Each structure stands twice: as C-alpha cells, then as structure tokens.
Amino acid sequence: MSDPVNQTFSSDLHIASFDIHPSAVYPIFIMGLLVYFFSLVSNLTILVLIVTKRSLHRPMFYILFSLPLNDLIGITAMFPRVLVDIVIMKHTVHYPTCVLQAFLLHMYGGAIPFILAAMAFDRYVAICKPLRYNTFMTPLAVAGLIALAWGVNFALIFVLFLLQTRVKKCKNYIISIFCDNFSLISLNCGEDLTINNIYGLAITVFMHSTTVLVQLFSYIHILVTCLKHKQSDAKSKAINTCSAQIIAFVLFAVVVLFTIGSYRFPNISSNARNACGMMIFLILPVLNPIIYGMKTKDIRIAFFQVLTKGKVTL
After folding, report:
1. What is the rounded distance in angstroms from the CA atom of residue 269 to the CA atom of residue 259?
2. Shortest CA distance to 105 belongs to which of 133, 77, 135, 84?
3. In angstroms, rounded to a whole number, what is the distance separating the alpha carbons of residues 158 and 208?
4. Three-state SS at 13
C-alpha cells in the first residue's frame, strides 16, 4: 500500500491517530467520554446560572459568559471526533469538515486571551475605580467589550484561513490527530508559504502581547490598590474577586508553554506529542468551570441555591 502522504489530494483525507492496543480502546473511549460529559455539564451549568439567576446579571458575569461558551466550542470541536476515531479506527476526515474543525479550534485558542483580557479590565475598573464603575461599564460598553474580544479574534482567524485557501493542495494526509491551520498548510505542493508564516506569527504575537499587557496592567494596578487599602476586608474582597481570573490566566500560560515545549523534543513518541497537542482543548474546558465554581462566591452561592431548591429560580 502506498504512503498516504504521497497520494494526490482528495476531499477525503487520511488523518493521524493514536497507536492504542486493542484491549485499551474501550477503556480509553469510556474515560474520554466521561471527561467530555463532565466538561459539557459543568460549563453548561455556569452558562445556565448566568442566564437565569438575577444575582449574576452584572457586567462581570456577562463577560464571564464567553469563557464557558468558548470552552464548549473548543472541546466539542476537537474531542468527540478523536474519541469516535479511536473506536471505529477509520482515520479519515472530509476536507470541508477538517477546515471547519480547524477554524473552530483556532477561534477557541484565539478567544481565550481576549476574553481573559476583557475580564481583567472589568476587575481593574471595579477595584481601582469603584465609584466610576457604573459609568464605565454600561450595558453598551459591556456589549462593545464582548463584541471587540470576539470580533477581533474572528477577523484575525478568518484572514488566516483565507490565506490558507490560496495554497494548492497535493497531499491527503493530516499530520495531527485533529485538523488545524498547520496540518492544512502541510497539504501544499511545495509552494512558498512566506506570507502565511509571517501572518501567522504576526497575529500570534499581536494576540498574546496585547492581551498579556492588558492583564499585567490590570492586575498590577489591582495589587497596588490592595496594598494601599488599610481595611483587610477590602483587600480580601478585591483579591477574591479576581483570583479565579488570575488562576485561569496562569493555567492557560502553563498549558500553552508545555504544549509548545513538547514539540521541542524530537525523541518524544507520537502518542505523547498528540496527547500534549490536545491539552489546551481538554485541560482548560475541564478545569475552568471548577476554578470559577470554587473561587467565585456569587456563582458558588447561586449553584448551591439551585441544589437546595431543586430548581433554577429567577
């Protein structure tokens, strides 16, 4: 049988897969399914609480709403297809479906820093300029901030994939277990990809530099404000309100750095490398709802109210 990498391009692509012993297929599938359903239920719970509980109808939670929504997009776009492929072992994907998956995964990855930056800015205004919070964070301003986070991300990713469509494809093998821009570009016929590479690097630098600067600016000012406060209650309240965001930011940075680092080791097995590539689409959607459920007092109270009453009340 010929190597799928050397075959001509077709709409049905071969895709990389995990090398799993037959006896471990179903245990891994069931474990993965449990992880997916836990993420699905926990993120949906936060979304439903924000929509239905009046106590959460505030700017902070309107912005937070984007995070579990984005987590659902990320894990749903990637994980179910990988799980199904582990069981049926077909290892093929339709090209339009591959492009859609890649676009959604890049939208997910790009949205995370923008959403965290928007949340950090909200906490900066709330803690450092509390008397002007309602003036700054009007419904229109909050809607504009959310639209800016999603809109800029969508525009940048859309252009990235627009550039990818101009590249002629001659191969039919996706080198990763899920579709992304790099694996789609790798189907090229040996064309000059300088423009694609420069643009990809440029938007990566732009996304992370701008959003990290916004977060550093916000959290440094919050820290200074906390240190200036003489009342311990005020300090404690300020720290508790933004601790979940800081943990989520650090978690995102650690996962990204670990994933990038895994590709620097040439001797790492393909299974380990593929698992590391999946981390950003699994760890954050699973841990984020736990972090916000435990560290955000209002969400915690709303959740326990639902448990004790047995229903969501308006």
Report:
1. 14
2. 77
3. 18
4. strand
Tell which residue, 11, 10, 13, has the closest CA to residue 173: 13
Q: Please, which residues bridge with residue 173 across strands?
A: 14
CB atoms within 10 A of CB 16: 18
Per the DSSP assignment, residues forming a β-bridge with 15 are: 174
pLDDT on residue 193: 87
Distance CA 100, CA 267 (A): 31
- The least confident of 16-25, 127-136, 193-202, 224-233 is 224-233
Cα-based angle 228, 118, 142 (whole degrees, multiple of 5): 105
Residue (of 4, 109, 11, 130) closest to 59 by Cα position: 130
Task: Name the DSSP letter for residue 168.
Answer: P
Q: 10: alpha, beta or left, given left = phi > 0 and alpha = psi -120 to 50?
A: beta
The pLDDT tens digits of the residues spanning 105-139 come to 999 999 999 999 999 999 899 888 888 888 989 99
Q: Read off the pTM.
A: 0.89
H or E element in which residue 12 lies = strand 12-15
CB 66 within 8 A of CB 119: no
Range scoring the smallest mean pLDDT among 54-68, 92-106, 284-298: 284-298
Question: Residues 42, 293: contact at Cβ < 8 Å?
Answer: yes
Q: pLDDT tens for residues 210-232? A: 999 999 999 898 888 887 776 55
CB 283 within 8 A of CB 251: yes
Instruction: Write down the residue that tokens 């404000």 correspond to.
Output: 225
Bridge partners (DSSP) listed for residue 94: 12
Report how far Cα 238 is from the mean position of its chain's Cα atoms.
26
Q: How far apart are CA 132 and CA 130, in angstroms?
A: 5
Q: How many CB atoms lie within 10 A of CB 210?
A: 14
The span from the CA of 78 to the CA of 281, in Å, is 7
